[in-house]
Amino acid sequence: MKDATILVAGATGNLGGRIARALRERGANVRALVRHGTARDRLERLQELGVEMAAVDLRSASEVTPACTGVSCMVSALQGLRDVIVVAQTVLLDAAIKAHVPRFIPSDYSIDFTKFPAGENRNLDLRRDFHKRLDESSISATTIYNGAFAELLTGQMPLILFTLKRVLYWGNPDQRMDFTTIDDTAAFTARAALDPSTPRFLRIAGDQLSARDLTVLVSEVTGQEFKLFRAGSLGLLGTMIRVARAVAPAERQLFPAWQGMQYMRNMFDGRAKLDPLDNDRYPGICWAKVRDVLSARN
Ligand SMILES: NC(=O)c1ccc[n+]([C@@H]2O[C@H](COP(=O)([O-])OP(=O)(O)OC[C@H]3O[C@@H](n4cnc5c(N)ncnc54)[C@H](OP(=O)(O)O)[C@@H]3O)[C@@H](O)[C@H]2O)c1
Questions:
Q1: Residue 24 half-sphere exposure, CB side, CA atoms within 13 Å?
Q2: How many whole angstroms separate alpha carbon 166 and alpha carbon 295?
């Protein structure tokens, strides 16, 4: 879409910054909604890309609405708990509607949480709550599901245990899971933001691998023998989540230990698996594989 202006909330963050860059690479005008007082270096990185800045209070629709003028799609890549995912995104939504922005991409970028009921994953339940507001509104919304960021496999996600040379799994070692790099998620989101005819949901995955597949792959990439390590059943994981949440609730943290365990359970139980994929919707995206991510770490 020539001359489109895309408004990005969360552009100072990891994914949002990459979405802004991908949009600029496609020639779009990008306006970033940034908070008053955001660190100067974060703003400078965006300014170097040619991104226009709109400093606003994200709690105030009257500040956000003027920043929406002439925008064809609002993309959110905010990160946070209820005050951000439900409250701030509702302010964005209300402002977008008031300013006649036709399309909205919420900050989902996850496994498909519509496939399991509320109560199983706190952070994804917040997105589910926001969806209720989104789907009651007049705006055309598109959620991007990408599974897990593939980069998490190099450390943050307790699946590949590099020092122990084990790949940990719960339940079924052959359950395939979806992994997409952050850059590929950003590139696809940018294309979706510029596409006026997106459906409500788009599903992407750079790779779909089981714990057993990962064991073979990480052994090949490192030249060291990794083995599968069964941590327990999904039932046991459920019990551990309940105990961890009772003992160390840390409810105001984004990622307390039990929250990471909830994501593990959702991925290993298979219900959130993405199918069918929309990878081929936009030509020219060369999907990175988990092998590429692990090789880069090595
Ligand atoms: N599928 C996966 O494996 C996976 C992994 C990680 C993230 N994600 C998803 O990707 C999306 C973006 O995450 P990210 O890792 O890129 O986040 P991030 O780097 O932490 O960036 C978060 C952005 O949100 C803004 N923000 C934070 N708190 C805010 C608040 N209280 N009010 C307003 N703005 C606030 C930040 O602004 P400032 O710069 O002003 O602080 C920043 O622009 C989220 O939906 C997240 O769940 C998915």
A1: 19
A2: 17
**Structural tokens at position 280:** 């081929």
pLDDT of amino acid 3: 76
Nearest-angstrom CA–CA distance, 234 and 264: 9
Residue 210 token pair: 């089981």
Residue 139's CB: how many other CB atoms inside 10 A?
16
Handedness of CA 264, 265, 267, 272 (dihedral sign): negative
Residues in the ligand 1 pocket, defined by CB under 6 Å: 10, 12-16, 35, 38, 42, 58, 77-80, 83-84, 88, 107, 109-110, 146, 148-149, 152
- Which pLDDT belongs to residue 1? 61
Q: What is the pLDDT of residues 206-241, one digit of tens each?
A: 999 999 999 999 999 999 999 999 999 999 999 999
Cα dihedral sign, 109-133-51-83: negative
Position 2 scores a pLDDT of 58
